[in-house]
Specification:
CATH class of the largest domain: Alpha Beta
Largest sheet: 7 strands, mixed
Radius of gyration: 26 Å
CATH superfamily of the largest domain: Vaccinia Virus protein VP39
Low-confidence stretches: 1-23
Mean pLDDT: 83
Shape: globular
Bound molecules: S-adenosylmethionine
Helix content: 40-55%
Strand order of the largest sheet: 3-2-1-4-5-7-6
Distance between the termini: 84 Å
């Protein structure tokens, strides 16, 4: 302390800087030590949360709590979502659109047909799908009128792309009239997921398919989804849980697949 004080008073700036560097390197050394202790602790914590059942349960519970607090799809909430969240998921929408195109071609449905996006929000996925399936009619459905105000920018005058206010639990489509259902980040918001899955099964044509993507941390567990399937009047194995692929953001998602039954 004394030494530093003297240096400050009588020494040229270079010496003060050198002394400061000595004190700084001491502090840095202490910080480095603390960091070296913290990193393994964080790694152990990470492993516990990722690879143990209780860890995963706690992480899921915390993530759901945080999500409950931030979810808000009225005016300002929609704007925040459009400006900050939707751009983060751009890679996901592209990936889902590629998956959708592949499924349509495997099923020999070509690039046409009717596709619906449940909980379409501001419509980014609808746009991505419309770029891959150039002849398809794509309808985005969402409970939130303020989200649809944003989505409306992408609607086309010929009706090929349109957006309607509606509930996934009460789809305005005839039985067996839809070739594909897609959805991203909406499932964990559905109040009655069983009712929505029942509707999906009702509107899908035989040979059609639903691909429902949701964040792994927030979505239902396999056991919870089996109960939802039964409540929807389906067999547990009718809703198949799959891993999503295609880079960092998509790999945080799981995908639920429902095949259109005859
Ligand atoms: C997190 S946003 C996701 C929006 C968009 N799919 C995306 O990936 O950016 C969830 C959306 O689901 C909508 N939503 C929630 N429950 C719904 C339901 N039962 N039917 C239709 N839309 C629903 C909300 O209004 C909200 O716009």
């Amino acid at each position: 302390m004394k030494f530093i004080g003297r240096a400050k008073a009588d020494s040229p700036p270079q010496l003060v800087a050198a002394v400061g560097a000595i004190g700084g390197s001491d502090r840095k050394g202490r910080q480095g030590k603390a960091l070296r202790r913290l990193v393994p602790a964080l790694m152990v914590l990470g492993l516990l949360t990722a690879f143990t059942k209780p860890g995963r349960r706690v992480t899921r519970m915390l993530a759901r709590r945080i999500d409950d607090r931030v979810e808000c799809f009225t005016g300002p909430g929609s704007e925040t979502y459009v400006r900050f969240f939707a751009p983060i998921f751009e890679r996901l929408y592209k990936r889902v659109a590629e998956d959708a195109a592949r499924e349509m071609s495997v099923r020999r449905l070509g690039r046409g047909g009717t596709v619906i996006d449940i909980g379409c929000g501001p419509g980014d996925l609808v746009v991505a799908v419309s770029r891959r399936l150039k002849q398809a009619r794509i309808v985005g459905i969402d409970l939130s009128p303020s989200m649809l105000l944003w989505a409306g920018r992408h609607a086309t005058t010929d009706g090929r792309i349109k957006f309607i206010v509606g509930d996934g639990a009460d789809l305005p489509f005839d039985d067996a009239s839809v070739d594909m259902v897609v959805s991203t980040l909406s499932l964990h918001h559905w109040d009655e997921p069983a009712d929505v899955f029942a509707e999906i099964a009702r509107v899908l044509r035989p040979g059609g398919v639903a691909l429902i993507y949701d964040l792994g941390l927030l979505t239902f567990t396999e056991a919870e989804m089996a109960v939802i399937a039964v409540d929807a009047g389906l067999e547990p194995e009718d809703i198949v849980r799959e891993r999503a692929h295609g880079g960092l953001i998509p790999s945080l998602f799981v995908r639920y697949r429902v095949e259109g039954l005859a």
